[in-house]
Each structure stands twice: as C-alpha cells, then as structure tokens.
Amino acid sequence: MGRRQLLLVLMVVGLPVLATAAIGLRVIFAGASHTNQTAGPTPTSTVTPRPTASNSASAGPSLPVDPYRPQGGGLLGNGVHGNAFLLATNDHGANKTYYWDGVAWRITSTPNPRALNSRPVFDPVLGMTMMIAGGDMGNALETWQWGGSNWAMRDTSLPGLTGPAILGFDAATNQLIMTTGSTVSTPNSVTSVASTWAFDGTKWQQVAGADSPEQREYTNMAYDPKHRQLVLFGGQNFQNRPHENQTDTWTWDGTSWTQRYPAVSPQGGFDSLVYDPDTQQLLLLEAANFLDRTNPVHFSMWTWDGDAWYQLHPAALPAYGPSPQMAYDFANHQLLLVEGTSEGDLTTQTWIYEAGTWKRVA
Fold first, then answer.
1. Burial level of 176, CB count in 10 A (0-12/13-18/19+)?
2. Mean of pLDDT values over 176-185
C-alpha cells in the first residue's frame, strides 16, 4: 500500500512507543515486588526528575481550567502534544475535550463527537488523535480525528460494524489497529462476529476475521516496545447478559492475533493497560467485577513480560472509582489514572504513579 497502514482493534495506545524511541526517556525505580511467578522483569533504580508545571505548559496549548470538574466515565488517551487527553462530560452537563497540564485538566472549546465508543489513540503517521464513535443501538461506526483544535469526522465507511471497538497503534509496523465486529442484538442476547481492521489514512481494510479477539468492553490495547507486540487483555464480554469477565490474553504481531496461555492471569473485569517508559514495563491496573454486580473494592496491578503476567505490589494503590483508565502523559512524564469518585458522585479523580506508589493529585 502507498501508505503505512493504521489498524483499528477496539482500544488504545501508540504514542508511548513513539515517545520512548524518540525521546530516550530514562528509567525510574518502580519499587513494586512481583508475586505469583518465580521470576519476572526487574526495573532499574535510576531516577528521572519530573517536570514542573511551568515546563509542562510549553508542551501543550494554553487553555483555561474548567470551573466545572470533568465527570467520571470519560475516555482517556493521548493528544497531539503528548499530553494526556480526556473526553468527558463536566458536572455542568457539557461534553468537552480536556488536556492534562501536569497539575490540572484544561478545557478546549470544542464539543466531543456524539456516542463516544473507543478510547482516543494518537497516530504519529497521521499526526492526529484518532477515535471511533457511534456503534450504539445498531448504528454504524464513525471515524473521528483531532488535529489540536477541533474534532472532524473522516469520510470512511465501516459498513455492518456495530458495538464496541478498541484502537491501538502498532509502532513496529506503524499501523493503527482496531478490533470490533458485526453485532446483532435481541432483548436477551447479543451475537457478534469479531474482525480486525487497518486504516491506510483514507479507508479501513479488514486484515483479520473471526480469529480476532471477541468484542468486549472495559479494557484497551497497549503496545509493548520491548517485545514488539500489541497486547489486549480481559475486560468484559459484550455478547452475554449479564456481561462476564474475560481473562484471555492476546498479542498482535503486525499480521495476526495469537491467544496466549500464561500460567497465571488476572481475574478480568475493569482493565486498563499502558506502557510506562519510566519503568520500561507494560502495566495492567485491574478492578475485578464479580457477577453479583457489586462494585470492586480494590485494584490489583500487574506487568506483562512478553510471555507471563506478574503481580506487582505498590506501596499504595488507588481507591476504586468507576471507569478506571490509565494513560502515559509524555509532555509531563507522568503515568495517570483517571476514574470516577463513586456511584453517587461521578466527578473525576486523577492519580499519578511514580516511585512505586500511587498518589491522588486532582
């Protein structure tokens, strides 16, 4: 093809790898021990100073702080300036796009696309942040892009594709990957046929069929530059009612999906994956959600070494909140978690992971 492909798989990553290669970030000590396996990856102990708020301002646009806090349940990814990038409704009812400046969420004046679907993923080939909207109630999926000032819908057709989608950027092949499917819903069941698609900058092309991971929600993809693979884990099954936790691990090598069978796996539920260039680890933060529909009471944290999962034990884990999602902010060198505060108060809380522990900052 005349252009490097961009693949679409149901969930997010990409900018982390680009920044790791281009910026050459140093490694910091994670301070977390491994369990459940006899051996695992060991981070180094060199510390990289964090930037100040004044340093971070030059990495992104000069925008006001929203007087109304963003609510939980938004979609977190990376914007074109490297900052963490959040699409959320604020507690005044407005749908907004936010940048993280290292200290606070700054609001843009542009409203979000309707019916948000996938988490936003930065595509360094296009120089755009990409996302999928639509797909609800049997409606077709839509492709949207953010160039730094506003959202624009691309004239790209995805006929017959509905339901949740997950995006991830494969830096080994410079492709944006999406996993999704063709979904038929009835009052008591959902039937879907999985598929994987690639975007060439103009149109989507199917690159894998029913051997793709099945459609799911509450998870994402992340690229692991150490092992040159996109990783997808867990979440909840989209077909069954009630939804069931998924504990399967998949890797994409640029051509096909492989289901992996590690000896130990997290429980599945509300999962978020991110590559942390500071610790040089692919990290998973999980809040297991059980079928009795009760809320999770705590998180667990894991790392993937290319073949196996190892549980980490930070000095402190975040308090649980709805819709937990992680992203690495390259402009401010911060690993962020964004989530709601509780079922009754859905304003956003923001946490940072550094030096082997989590701390709330907003």
1. buried
2. 83
Domains and CATH numbers, the chain: 6-360 (2.120.10.70)
Of the CA atoms within 13 Å of residue 93, those in its CB half-sphere come to 0
CA 83 to chain centre: 14
Residue 161: phi, psi to the nearest 5?
-95, 125
Q: Are 208 and 219 a contacting pair, CB within 8 Å?
A: no
Q: Terminal CA-to-CA distance of the chain, rounded, Å?
A: 45
- Average confidence score pLDDT of the chain: 79
pTM listed for this prediction: 0.81
Are 246 and 234 spatial neighbours (Cβ–Cβ below 8 Å)? yes
Residue 337 above 60 pLDDT? yes
Helix (H, G, I), strand (E, B) or coil at 136: helix
In 3D, which of 170, 163, 289 has the Cα closest to residue 216? 163
127 is written with which tokens?
A: 């120089």
Determine if residue 67 is left, alpha or beta; phi over 0 gives left, psi from -120 to 50 gives alpha, anything else beta: alpha
Cα–Cα distance, 291 to 288 (Å, whole number): 10
Written as one letter, the residue type at 92 is H
> Among the listed ranges 247-251, 262-266, 337-341, which one has the minimum average pLDDT value?
337-341
Spacing of C-alpha 316 from chain mean position: 22
For residue 95, the model assigns a pLDDT of 80
Residue 360 confidence (pLDDT) above 80: yes
Whose tokens are 């494969």? That residue is 170
Per-residue pLDDT at 306:
97
Query: Looking up tokens 């964004």, which residue turns up?
Result: 338
Residue the block writes with tokens 């667990």:
300
Alpha-carbon distances of 188 from 184, 243, 344, rounded to whole Å: 11, 12, 28
Q: What is the pLDDT of residue 83?
A: 94
121-123/128-134 β-pairing = antiparallel
Least confident of 126-140, 171-185, 284-298: 284-298
CB 299 within 8 A of CB 322: no
C-alpha 104 chain-centroid distance: 20
Q: Would you state the structure tokens that stand for residue 331, as one six-digit string? A: 């402009």
What is the C-alpha to C-alpha distance for residues 246 and 154, in angstroms, rounded to an integer? 32
Residue matched to tokens 């090598």: 253
Give the pLDDT of residue 160.
Answer: 76
